RNA sequence: AGAGGAGUGGUAGAGUGGUUUAUUGCACCGGUCUUGAAAACCGGAGACCGUUUACGCGGUCCGGGGGUUCGAAUCCCUCCUCCUCUGCCA
């Protein structure tokens, strides 16, 4: 969530920036925040005064009791009783205002970075880089949902039987390819200085609030109601929340973590024609990189992370393009997002395989993740993350682009991991 | 899962209803001393909110939440976590 300080000090800039998202009522919501904040401070000022007086009198009573002046103590007691009544009312009012303010702040998305173009949907995204020639496949080229049947490597019917739609079963070389990709991605990240983390796959409510899945996107996560836990939709959630409620010392910054986890998404109501096969799943594997940076370094870190993700795609010999998302197409937490899309030759479509974002201080403010600056003042840190990479669509593109009469060719860099060079 | 015990500042650990603005040790930072360091000595140091041009001042915080009281780290309720024993289990 946006910090009150920024809203107070930069009202006009915040409203203008939110306009790039086509976010409705930005002006009136921001003004409502400012008004509530002012009210809250007025109430606190009054309440603090009463508490202060009451604290002084309580000490007086203590002294009077000790010296045996009971009647005088009783007199003072009646005074403090009255103060207490007033304070109880004001405290309740304060709590209500704080909660209202909190709800309001949760409903306001992050302010897009200067570089982010205004726009409402994918048509306003900007392609800033393309790499690799698109493969020229014969007319007989098959989409991956046919190839996985042909080679019997991924089975949706079996998944359907034991779990439901969107839970594929990986078999034989299909399973080995998954494992190879995971290990390859983890090794590459480790070589770049990322620390490998194996987090829990379920998180509590506080973690959901920390990274912004709650309260708004609750329906996207699987909820274990008996224990009030949530299956993680991405490793971003547990790995970023490792640092919740912390003031990091200089020696701990930056953090560069990488984690492989399955990801669980309900994807309620988002199934349609383009999501056949591996294009969209309820459970999928992903390797995620997460960084925590000081504010003046986060822009550079974002470039570094993009360059790293691009290097993976190049090693896998996949044609890709890099998009700068417009305001309306970004997630509500992000201040700037680059998407990487690979070309799937048989579907003749670009598939998103990575989303690399800088969240600025938006998540850090929710999580109370801070550091001490040179003046010794506590300041919010910046959080960033990116997929490196999400597996299913990588597999889809590899299968489609690398199909030959002899079988599916495995990219050179993966062969040491798969121990085979063709799926035939 | 059952029984018992415990959660206090960076850490260890006192405090069981009223000068507690929470002892003290260690670690940390600054200073004195020293050629330099160590030791010794002196001093400093938390988070959040509010207020103030500023120095400051006020409020809240002793695992989380709620309650009793004029007053709670201390008493009560509830939840969480850890430890010990018993049970179960990969």
Spell out the blueprint of helices and strands.
Layout: H1 4-9, H2 11-19, H3 26-66, H4 70-106, E1 126-131, H5 144-150, E2 154-155, H6 156-162, E3 169-170, H7 173-191, E4 195-197, E5 202-203, H8 205-211, E6 223-224, E7 229-231, H9 236-241, E8 246-248, E9 255-264, E10 283-293, H10 298-315, E11 320-324, E12 336-344, E13 349-358, H11 362-367, E14 369-372, E15 378-380, E16 382-390, H12 391-401, E17 408-409, H13 415-418, E18 422-423
Parallel strand pairs: 4-9, 8-14
Antiparallel strand pairs: 1-11, 2-3, 5-7, 6-7, 9-10, 10-16, 11-12, 12-13, 13-16, 14-15, 17-18
Helix pairs in contact: 2-3, 3-4, 5-12
This protein binds one RNA strand of 90 nucleotides through residues 40-41, 44-45, 47-49, 51-52, 54-55, 57-63, 65-66, 73-74, 76-81, 83-84, 247, 368, 378.
Short descriptors:
single chain, 424 residues, alpha+beta, Helix Hairpins, BirA Bifunctional Protein, domain 2, 2 domains, eight-stranded mixed beta sheet, three-stranded antiparallel beta sheet, elongated, RNA-binding
Structure, described:
- With 424 residues, the chain is α+β, with helices and mostly antiparallel strands.
- The chain has two domains: 4-106, Helix Hairpins, CATH 1.10.287; 122-423, BirA Bifunctional Protein, domain 2 (2-Layer Sandwich), CATH 3.30.930.10.
- The protein has 13 helices and 18 strands.
- The protein has helices at 4-9, 11-19, 26-66, 70-106, 144-150, 156-162, 173-191, 205-211, 236-241, 298-315, 362-367, 391-401, 415-418; strands spanning 126-131, 154-155, 169-170, 195-197, 202-203, 223-224, 229-231, 246-248, 255-264, 283-293, 320-324, 336-344, 349-358, 369-372, 378-380, 382-390, 408-409, 422-423.
- The strands form five sheets. Strands 1-11-12-13-16-10-9-4 form an eight-stranded mixed β-sheet. A three-stranded antiparallel β-sheet has the order 5-7-6.
- A hairpin with a 5-residue loop joins strand 14 and strand 15.
- Helix 2 (11-19) crosses helix 3 (26-66) and helix 3 (26-66) packs antiparallel against helix 4 (70-106).
- The longest helix is centred in the N-terminal third of the chain and has 41 residues, at 26-66.
- The radius of gyration is 27 Å and the shape is elongated.
- The protein starts with a helix and ends with a strand.
- The chain binds one RNA strand of 90 nucleotides through helix 3 and helix 4.
